[in-house]
Amino acid sequence: MLAAVLLDVNGTLTDPSAIGAVWGRPDLGERVLEHAVSTATVAALLQHGEGTFREHLSAAVDVVAATAYLDPHAKAQALERAASLPARPGAADALATLRDANVRIVALTNSGAEAGRATLRACGLLALIERVLGVDAVSTFKPDPSVYAYALSELDEAPNRVALIATHPWDLAGAAHGGMRTAWVRHRPRVWPAVFPTPEVQADTLADLANVILAYRW
After folding, report:
1. What angle do CA 198, 89, 77 make, to 5 degrees?
2. How confident is the model over 116-150, as pLDDT tens digits?
3. Under DSSP, is residue 218 helix (H, G, I), strand (E, B) or coil?
4. Are residues 151 and 70 in the same domain?
5. pLDDT of residue 49
6. CA-CA distances (angstroms) from residue 34 to 56, 85, 91, 162, 173?
7. Judgement on whether residues 99 and 112 belong to the same structural domain of the protein
8. Are 176 and 204 in contact (CB under 8 A)?
9. Is the peptide bond before 143 cis (omega within 30 degrees of 0)?
10. CATH number of the domain to which 166 belongs
11. Do 164 and 64 share a structural domain?
């Protein structure tokens, strides 16, 4: 039986389109986040994860603004938006559904723990979450295996009793590598990369995914 869920924050619980909205291009928010994740992943692989995810977001804003011919002077505003993204539609209801079923709810963010708490507080979700775990505790970034091992040690639960909820296939692949269960929320039409282990459950929205998780025979 499932005892707990770990939830990714950036892009999963929160909507990055607000970053791109600074330029009137909400679609670019996802691209900024993807660039930040790619450089953070390289940093983790090269064992240079002592920086912050905000630094990777800053570099990503520079890249996206330049390649899309956008006003570089809006960078400060874009980073401000990135620190206080709105919650995904139905996120609060999904967390409440899981909590009411006595499933522990813990956030695992690629940001530092305090930055993660600030983001979740700003979007109104913090009160629904037992604890926020950040990668600053292990000085690297997801999907480094040490991040998931750290989260499991803090939960004090067996991997097969914990599921990661994320919208990023690479994050779920990291969780599966660590023996955890996996739950994919798509948020938009997407195709799962065939090179990664197939997620055990999936849905288009967080609200639907919460119900699927509770109905699944773990």
Report:
1. 105
2. 999 999 999 999 999 999 999 999 999 999 999 99
3. coil
4. no
5. 64
6. 10, 15, 21, 25, 16
7. yes
8. no
9. yes
10. 3.40.50.1000
11. no
